[in-house]
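Notes, p. 3: input format for complexes.
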Amino acid sequence: MPVTIARPRSLRGEIIAPGDKSVSHRAIMFNALSNTGTARVTNFSPGADCTSTVEIMRALGVEISREAGAKGMGDSLTVKGVGLNGLQEPAGILDAGNSGTTTRLMSGILAGQDMLTILTGDDSLKSRPMGRVVKPLTSMGAVISGRANDTLAPLVFHGGSLHESSYEMPVASAQLKSCLLLAGLRADGTTTLTQPAESRDHTERMFSAMGVNLTKTGLDLVLEPSELETVDVEVPGDISSAAFWMVAGICHPDAELLINNVGINPTRAGIITALQMMGADLILVDEREVAGEPVADVLVRTSDLKGVELSGDIVPLLIDEIPVIAVAASLAEGETVIKDAEELRVKESDRIQASVSWLNGAGVDVVGTPDGMIVPGGGSIGGGQFQSYDDHRLAMSLGVAGLISTEPITVLDPDVAGISYPSFWEIIDQFGGLVG
Ligand code: S3P
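Output follows (436 residues plus shikimate-3-phosphate):
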C-alpha cells in the first residue's frame, strides 16, 4: 500500500540505527566456514537481504539459530561452523532475493566446491553484472556458467579446483574483493589483489580477527590459504540506514536528531565527510570501538548547506548514500556535482536515472550524467507520487524527501524498504511524518 509523508513541524528525538547489513552478511558467512565452534552474532541486520544469507547457509547444511535481541537491538544468532570444506550440496536452488552482497560473496564460497550449486535471485538481481566475479573466479580454476555468456544470474557452480592468482580489480568493489578473498582461502597458493581505490574493508577486519593470513600494502591485498577461527560479532549500527536520518535532521527547518550506535568505519563514512563539507551541523559523540569496528552516536541539527563536488576516492566510501545526498544537495546553496559514480547504474536500480527522474518530478532540475549527476541547488523539493523502482534506498530517500518537502510525497511501493530497514516507515510515523 502507498504511504504519504508530509513535513512535520519539528523533527526531534533519538533513533537507534539498525544492525549493519554488510557486517551481518559477513558475520554469518565467515563463521559458517570456521572450523572452531559456535559463534554468536548480536544486533543482526533486520533486513530481508541478510535473511537471504542465513537461509542460503542453512540450505548448505549450516546450523543457525535466531532469537529476538534485547530491546531496540537486532536479533541474536548462533552459527555452528562447518569448516572451509564442510558445506553440503543443497537439494534446491539457492535464492539470494534482492541481495547483490549475498550473490557475489557466496560466489567466492561456492566456486571450486566439490558439488553443484545454483544461485539466483529476484528480477533486479538477475539484471546485475556477475561477470565481474565469474571472470576472475574462472581464471582461478572454478567452473561457472550463467545467463548472457556467464555474466548474469542464475549462476551455476560446477566445482573445479582453485589456484593461486594475481588480479587487478577493474572496479573498487568490496563485493568483488570479498568474493576473491573468500575463494583464496581454499586456493592452492597466494591470492594477490590490486584495488583501483579503497572500498569498505569489513572483510579484511573480520578475516584478521579470525586468524586469516592477510596483508595489506597500500591498495594491494595478499592472502595465503587459511582456516577461519570462530569469532563472536556485535554488529554495529548501519551508517547507510543512519544516513537517511542525518539528511532529514540537517535539512528540516526545525530539527535535532541523535542517531545512536552508528558504525563510522572510515571506508564507509564518506557520507559524514560529504555532509560536513556541505556545511552540516553534524557532530560525532562518544566515539568507541565495537568488535573491531569504530562506532559513535551522530548528532545532527538544522543546517544551511552549500553545494560541493563529490568525485574520485570518496565515491566508493559513500556509494550507497548518493540517492539521499542528492536530496540534501537539492536544498543546498549552489551546485553539487557528483562524478565517478557510474557504479550507481548497476545497483538495485539504475540509481542515477531513478534519482533524476523522481527529483525532476518533484521540481528539482537535477541533470544526470553518464557517471553521476549535477544538482543545481538553491531550491526546494515539491510533492507528488513516485515509484521507488523496487529499490530500498530510493524508497527511503523519498521518505526523507517527504519530511522536508514543501508538499506531501507519496511513495507508491514503500515495502521494499524492508530489504535493509523494515521499521523505517514506523519511525517516520513516530516523527509525525506519515499522513496517509
Ligand atoms: C557492499 C558493497 C557495496 C555496496 C553494497 C554492499 C558489501 O557494493 O553498494 O550495498 O557489503 O560489500 P560494491 O562493493 O559492489 O560497490
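The first strand starts at residue 3 and ends at 5.
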